[in-house]
Amino acid sequence: MTPHDPTPETPPRRNESGRTPDGTAPPVLVGFDLDFTAHEIERRAQVLAALGPDWDPIEALHGEEQAYDLLYSGLDAEQQRLYDDLVTAGVLPRRAGSDGSGGSDGDDRAAA
User: Is there a contact between 84 and 103 (Cβ–Cβ < 8 Å)?
Assistant: First the structure.
């Protein structure tokens, strides 16, 4: 049984003269550009329409910050050490209310 999509032939190798081994000139490359600007504008408009007129981005950001504050509050010593290591490595941003010393016990994050 033959495959539906046969394997394409490998292009001939070029020698130093810039021609293929069979003496023909290599195929000419053609530039190909796509502009997705109109598509991206339409996508963003559809996202905003789906969010609706009552969506408040500032309120959403505040809710997200509160969720992160809750997530990183009340850490035990090992969790706090790991959190501080990740902040020092630049993986996580330093949360508001953190003392920046890397040695806090997590209580300052609960109040933030």
Answer: yes
As a whole number of angstroms, the distance between CA 75 and CA 104 comes to 10
Provide the token pair at 86: 């990740």
Burial (CB count <10 Å: 0-12, 13-18, 19+), residue 39? exposed
By the 8 A CB rule, do 37 and 45 touch?
no
For residue 78, the 8-state DSSP code is: H
Q: pLDDT digits over 58-82, tens only? A: 999 999 999 988 988 899 999 999 9
Encoding tokens for residue 53? 């007129």
CB 96 within 8 A of CB 112: yes
Q: Left (φ > 0), alpha (ψ -120 to 50) or beta: where does 10 sit?
A: beta
pTM of the full predicted structure?
Answer: 0.43
Q: Cα separation of 79 and 75, whole Å? A: 5
